[in-house]
Each structure stands twice: as structure tokens, then as C-alpha cells.
Amino acid sequence: MNLILHLLIDAGVIFGLAYFMPQIDVKNFGTALLIAVLLGLLNFFLGWIIRFPLNLVTFFLLTGLVRIVVTALLLKLIDSFLDSFTIRGFWPALVIALVVAVVGSLIDRQAPTPEMVESGYVVIRQAVAALQLA
């Protein structure tokens, strides 16, 4: 469920930024969803190969920054494969990568972990919220 949510939100972020930034062209939301799926697959299969040496060079002190730069590079790679997706320049790709990372971390922060669900914390939190509304 969390994977589907991340893919939909990433596609929404990409499509929304394409609306606001003239350097980014996305044909439709289906293309944005395809970009999100390809980005996830490339990050899983190829991203760690690129990130690991860069993290070694920076002594793992700039892990978040390295992840954002590698995501921007992967977006430029996706741009070269798809005709319906265009990014003119590296900075717009970096902006997309930064916004995707920030939104993804906000989603992960709000999503309950399996431990929270098993312990009953989520049920208690919902009950307290319902009592506050009443």
C-alpha cells in the first residue's frame, strides 16, 4: 500500500512541477506515473551502485545530498529514454528530486509503522482524535 501511495504522490509531484516549471514537459498523468515507476526501479537497481562510491568519498556525511543528486541524474536518464518527458537542464531535475525527497519523507513520517499498528497505538490515537472532535 505504501509503495502505491509513493508512486501516485511522486507522479503527482512530477506532473505538478511540470505545470509550474517551463523547463519540464510531461505529456499527461500516465506519463508521470510511468516516470515514477521507472524512477523507483532505477533507484532500486542502479541507484545504489552510483550512491555507494559517492557516499564513500564523502564518508557518509552527505548521504541525503548524494541521494538527491543521484535521483536527479536518474531523472535525466529517464528523460533520454522517453519522448513524452523532457527536462531542459540539470537544475530542474534537481528541483524535482528535492521535492520528491521532501514529500516522500513527509509521507513516511505520517504513515504508521507495522509496530505502531500491532501495539494498538494507531487505534488509541484515532480514539483520542475522535474525542477531541466531540
TrEMBL record:
Instruction: State the organism named in the record.
Output: Spirosoma sordidisoli
InterPro entries hit by this protein: Phage_holin_4_2
Q: Which UniProt keywords apply?
A: Membrane, Transmembrane, Transmembrane helix
Q: Name one Pfam family in it.
A: Phage_holin_4_2
Top-level taxon in the UniProt lineage: Bacteria
Membrane-spanning intervals of the chain: 6-22, 29-50, 56-78, 90-107
Q: What is this protein called?
A: Phage holin family protein
